[in-house]
């Protein structure tokens, strides 16, 4: 008789776990799984997999990395020597094909980050920081007050997500 009471509780717990795990599996950056360049190794690309690549990203950012928006985003590194490095190609794929470029995509990302209860993976943390870089660059080129406020809010939400993850 006790199993009849216990069974609905177990089923409810399993259902809750499946719903939670399904929510956690939702990709923050769905475009990372739709790389158009055709190389299998570039599916779900990440740039930083070693300390040397972390240092390289820091150098690239200091050199003045520019991430262009639009449908066909592009990445520009003013330092030609840095730009020619083979390992920078993955960063190029991340910046051009994975990062959200439209405000609606960035707002979807910030909403998903706000709901997230677990820490970000290394890939998602990297992409969130690079999205912040892109957002700052867009913000610097906007003159309309309303647009500036909307993009500033998106930047603030991204910052809060990174800050929450670092705590």
What is the overall shape?
A: globular
Count up the helices: 7
Number of domains: 1
Total number of strands: 2
The pLDDT mean sits at 77
Strand content: under 5%
- How far apart are the termini? 47 Å
- Low-pLDDT stretches are 15-25
Radius of gyration: 19 Å
Order of helical and strand elements: HHEEHHHHH
The helix fraction, in percent, is 55-70%
Can you describe this structure?
The chain is 63% helix and 2% strand. A two-stranded antiparallel ribbon has the order 1-2. It has one domain (2-166). Helix 5 runs parallel beside helix 7 (145-166) and helix 6 packs antiparallel against helix 7 (145-166). It has helices at residues 2-25, 51-63, 80-83, 88-98, 103-115, 122-140, 145-166; strands at 66-67, 75-76. The chain has 7 helices and 2 strands. The model is unreliable at 15-25 (pLDDT under 50). The relative contact order is 0.12. Strand 1 (66-67) and strand 2 (75-76) form a beta hairpin. The protein is globular.
Keywords:
two-stranded antiparallel ribbon; 2% strand; mainly alpha; 167 residues; 7 helices
Write the layout of secondary structure elements.
Layout: H1 2-25, H2 51-63, E1 66-67, E2 75-76, H3 80-83, H4 88-98, H5 103-115, H6 122-140, H7 145-166
Antiparallel strand pairs: 1-2
């Amino acid at each position: 008789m006790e199993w009849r009471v216990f069974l609905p509780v177990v089923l409810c717990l399993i259902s809750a776990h499946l719903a939670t795990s399904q929510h956690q599996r939702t990709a923050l950056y769905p475009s990372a799984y739709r790389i158009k360049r055709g190389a299998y190794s570039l599916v779900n690309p990440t740039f930083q997999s070693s300390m040397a690549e972390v240092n390289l990203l820091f150098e690239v950012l200091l050199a003045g990395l520019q991430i262009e928006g639009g449908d066909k985003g592009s990445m520009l590194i003013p330092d030609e020597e840095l730009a020619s490095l083979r390992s920078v190609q993955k960063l190029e794929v991340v910046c051009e094909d994975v990062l959200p470029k439209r405000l609606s995509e960035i707002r979807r990302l910030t909403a998903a980050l706000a709901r997230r209860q677990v820490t970000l993976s290394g890939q998602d943390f990297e992409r969130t920081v690079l999205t912040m870089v892109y957002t700052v660059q867009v913000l610097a080129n906007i003159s309309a007050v309303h647009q500036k406020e909307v993009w500033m809010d998106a930047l603030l939400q991204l910052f809060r997500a990174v800050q929450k993850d670092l705590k």
